[in-house]
User: What shape does this take?
Amino acid sequence: MTRSVREEQVSVESEEQQELHSPAGREAERGGKEEEEDPLHHLEDDEEDDDEEEEEEEEEEDGENKPKRRGPKKKKMTKARLQRFKVRRMKANARERNRMHGLNDALESLRKVVPCYSKTQKLSKIETLRLAKNYIWALSEILRSGKAPDLMSFVQALCKGLSQPTTNLVAGCLQLNPRTFLPEQTPDLPAHLPPAGATAYPGHFSYQSPGLTPGLPSPPYGTMDPSHIFHQVKGQPYGPLEPFFDGVLVSDGPSFDPPLSPPLSINGNFSSSFKHEAVTAADYDKSFSFSVHYSGGGGHPPIYGGGGPNPRCGELQVDGMMGFDGHSHHERLMNAQLNAIFHDS
DNA sequence: TAGGCCATCTGGTCCT
DNA sequence: AGGACCAGATGGCCTA
Assistant: This one.
């Protein structure tokens, strides 16, 4: 059963069922072992269901040999009190569930704007947060330096601190052989990471993101959408991608929606994923719209071909990157195009 | 079967 | 008092 299916099943579970299925509920069913904690065990069967009984305090346990308990004395758990306790607890549980659902929704939104996203196979929570952190750092570094990283160093930045499976995923989604960008292994760092502070490629930014916790595993889920990285302007030079785009881009054509790339099967064997046929531009209708939103009033640092004659060449599309749909047409096309590029290289 | 990930419950703490 | 937030505990599901 996939996680998403399971989530749906869990979500439709009634509160009462959850109450029964909860660890505490199971404990209660078994007779319970936490007698001190379980309010059920304070229930006096012969108590009236009467609010008047509430103020009664527990006295009979205070034997002379027993040390007196500090703090407020425990009240007898009358049926009425027990009922209120249950109601309060159920309400608290429901709030907590909603809170966690909100948290998960936010995390899902985050998954959609980081460079690896798949509806069917999700990055884990921790890997999503790590990737998001790396992504933010990498973009910030681009803004700060005004230099365009090459794909390798960008992917390295994205992958820093990620588990090996997720790193494989990022590479796999770009049809990159991890060996091409993974330096030699060091005992303290994941194999894909350059030494701290090292510049992976001369002339490109180095990655020094703090607070990394390398080595924690994560399942290989999702797809890499390189359009999160590269946003090109129609009709402009494309830097390293220019030869490719020269043959592909057609201005003002009808909108084209290429199929989403299926989630790549990353099982530790990269060669297998490289063997599969990358989607090439030729697979798509060449008539499509490749509009690129030009956000802001200028001053964005160039990503690619920044030194070119046109100041808008290859500018970073900040707000477009943060779109919550995650996969606009041109983004998906870029994905396929870059896959083709790096597959052939 | 072990380990990873997850949802949920729960009690404590802090805040309004 | 009640709600939000947090962390620990627990058990289910999935995969290698």
Summary: Residues 1-72, 183-334, 336-345 of chain A have pLDDT under 50 and may be disordered. DSSP finds twelve helices and no strands in chain A.
